[in-house]
């Protein structure tokens, strides 16, 4: 099993897909890296020779921000938004969707399970006396 940027890459997958197991590398970046190193995208990870793995490691370490370094940068950006009190920072602080999604009915995953409110329910349809 090849280890690149501190991540064990699966052996039985094509290198194009296997590189995407590294945080910060998606399909486009994976293709770009393979083009730079001159490795066939459809080669299985187990079929790579040591020289090719070293080239991949070198290119990723030298040119791209991935894994711990990228996670740290993202967390610092969020922390900065919270500290300056921007709209997005406030949304992050209250664990609400940040990118303008509707919250009246959706956003259950972000807001958590429903909280039952006293006085709501069957009485709603009954006319007041």
Describe the structure.
The chain contains six helices and two strands, in the order E-E-H-H-H-H-H-H. The protein has 129 residues and is mostly helical. It has two domains: 3-63, Orthogonal Bundle (Helicase, Ruva Protein, domain 3); 68-122, Ribosomal protein S13/S18, C-terminal domain (30s ribosomal protein s13, domain 2, Irregular). It has a two-stranded antiparallel sheet. Helix 4 crosses helix 5. The longest helix is centred in the middle third of the chain and has 18 residues, at 67-84.
In short:
The protein has 129 residues and is mostly helical. The protein has helices at residues 15-18, 27-37, 50-63, 67-84, 87-93, 108-111, and strands at 3-4, 7-8.
- Biggest sheet details: 2 strands, antiparallel
**CATH C-level of the largest domain:** Mainly Alpha
Q: Structural class of the helix and strand makeup? A: mainly alpha
Termini separation (Å)?
74 Å
| Adjacency order of strands in the biggest sheet | 1-2
**Order of SSEs:** EEHHHHHH
Low-confidence stretches: none
Could you name the CATH topology of the largest domain?
Helicase, Ruva Protein, domain 3
User: What's the architecture of the largest domain, going by CATH?
Assistant: Orthogonal Bundle
Task: Note the overall shape.
Answer: elongated
Tag the structure with descriptive keywords.
two-stranded antiparallel ribbon, Helicase, Ruva Protein, domain 3, 6 helices, 45% helix, 2 domains, 2 strands, 3% strand, mainly alpha, 129 residues, 30s ribosomal protein s13, domain 2, single chain
